[in-house]
Predict the structure.
Amino acid sequence: MTLAHPELDERTETRADVPWVAVVWDDPVNLMSYVTYVFQQHFGFTRATAERLMRQVNDEGRAIVATGPRESMEAHVEAMHGYGLQATVDRAPAP
């Protein structure tokens, strides 16, 4: 005898959580040297990597600074806000 669970929807697909990204946006307030400092302090990037990402923020208006589970990206974004930077969480771009 098979027991049916009415609350279980068998049509629901299960899939791994898609990756998420933390995006830092350009703003007219923060100095480039400060953004570089924040990237080094918070993410542990080398100076060269932090400067490359800072230049991307400055030149392109945004840079993806981290990829991973949504909760981790939300924590990074919250930290960026604490440093006074504008940041958001978004789905990772398709490969």
Notes: The radius of gyration is 19 Å. The first helix runs from residue 32 to 43. The first strand starts at residue 20 and ends at 25. Residues 20 and 92 are 5 Å apart (CA to CA).
